[in-house]
Amino acid sequence: MDIKQHPTLSYKKNKLHLSGTCIHSITKELKTPFYLYNVEALERNFLNFSNCANDHNIFEPLVCFALKSNPNLNLLKSLKRLGAGADIVSGGELKQALKAKISPMKIVFSGVGKTEEEITLALNSHPQGIYSFNVESVEELEMIAKVSKKLNKVARVALRLNPQVNVKTHKHISTGGKSHKFGILKSDIEGILKNKKLLKNVLLVGLSIHIGSQLTCLKATEKALKELSNLALACDQDLEFLDVGGGLGVPYHPDEPLSSIDEYMSLVSTTIEKYYTSKKGSHQRQPRIVFEPGRYIVANTGVLVTSVIRTKSSEENKFIIVDGGMNDFVRSSLYGAYHHVLPLNKRSGVLKASHVVGPICETADSFASNRELPPIKTNDRICIGDVGAYGFSMSSIYNMREKIKEYVIDKEGVLISHK
Ligand SMILES: *Cc1c(COP(=O)(O)O)cnc(C)c1O
């Protein structure tokens, strides 16, 4: 329950606030469960990120928000106004980014399974297509070249390096190891660079990496950036950009040891300078740096509000059964992730260890085990914290439950609903 240091959640007079707005007052008429986001927090996170890149003299930073973390249109429109681009992984996300009026020249397309249809859609979204297809295999490069030729276009491509680093995060969200499906091994990229036939009908504009998500330590990032720089140096052409991916972790648990945004930007800046820019010579054009953050921008902007259906005691086990389930928010079940569980109106009384569970017929349908909570009764509303990233976007209709609503508190503190 320790949220004293939390950037967006706080209690004032025992009422829970999200970035300064009382959650109970603004949502008491709404049917639970639902997601609630605050634009104020979103903008603060984005500006923190991009201002920090500027503070570290990163060259022409382009911050492409990873849509898969949260594709909510109202949030995307706010990010677009602040200059954000988009990192997309499907045709659906491309359409959503375009709907938010994000320029195709600020869109990078990642993912190992881009289809011919999706590649066509992306190439047709602008005379020059999109800013970059981040290519994940030789076979994909061949398909992009084929589609480009057919459409009489030249696709802008970056090769995604698999830097063969092992990351300290949950195994499901580590993406930079040799056995992972992502990226191209260094030797294969060198093969592509030598075989000019493979680069017909496409324009090689950059190199990219993305080694995983919820990264809490920067050791692997440093190694990957070094690999990326070395490879860039080996290209016998100037590159427009280096894309360093996303993955910066957030403190879901107050004791989580985390690198700061400042340490991260400093590492990106110094590593690329040391292993690439300084060796290239000053007459060369500096590459722009592209970032693909998702979680860092959006995780702490959202909560899941859910009501207690009933409590249940089973010998020493105390259950709090809520109307939100793992289909609405899956991170706790899928990754065993810690998330704050907080009553909207905090009652006084002794703390009791309880299991907070949903109604889904799966033992994994649990938001917290043995969590020390103040007294909680039927019909109380509680919220799961830090669910802005990989919350609604990973939700499903398992158990034939409808997708729940999302609400946004706009900059004026007014509640807006979408859909
Ligand atoms: C998921 C993903 C991201 C975003 O990761 P976060 O951990 O949310 O920052 C960025 N780039 C690619 C290629 C991704 O797959």
From TrEMBL:
Recorded catalytic activity of this chain's protein: meso-2,6-diaminopimelate + H(+) = L-lysine + CO2
User: Which molecular function term from Gene Ontology is one that the record holds?
Assistant: diaminopimelate decarboxylase activity
Q: Which UniProt keywords apply?
A: Amino-acid biosynthesis, Decarboxylase, Lyase, Lysine biosynthesis, Pyridoxal phosphate
Q: Where is the Orn/DAP/Arg decarboxylase 2 N-terminal domain?
A: 60-299
Q: In which pathway does it act?
A: Amino-acid biosynthesis; L-lysine biosynthesis via DAP pathway; L-lysine from DL-2,6-diaminopimelate: step 1/1
As stated in the Swiss-Prot or TrEMBL entry, residues carrying the post-translational modification N6-(pyridoxal phosphate)lysine are K68
Instruction: Locate the active site.
Output: C361 (proton donor)
Q: InterPro entries, from UniProt?
A: Ala_racemase/Decarboxylase_C (IPR009006), DAP_deCOOHase_LysA (IPR002986), De-COase2_CS (IPR022657), De-COase2_N (IPR022644), De-COase2_pyr-phos_BS (IPR022653), Orn/DAP/Arg_de-COase (IPR000183), PLP-binding_barrel (IPR029066)
Gene Ontology biological process terms, A to Z: lysine biosynthetic process via diaminopimelate
Question: Which PROSITE patterns did the record assign?
Answer: ODR_DC_2_1, ODR_DC_2_2
Q: Cite the EC number.
A: 4.1.1.20
Question: Per the entry, which co-factors are needed?
Answer: pyridoxal 5'-phosphate
**Which PANTHER family does the UniProt record give?**
DIAMINOPIMELATE DECARBOXYLASE, GROUP IV DECARBOXYLASE
Indicate what this protein is called per its UniProt record: Diaminopimelate decarboxylase
What species was this sequence derived from?
Answer: Halobacteriovorax marinus
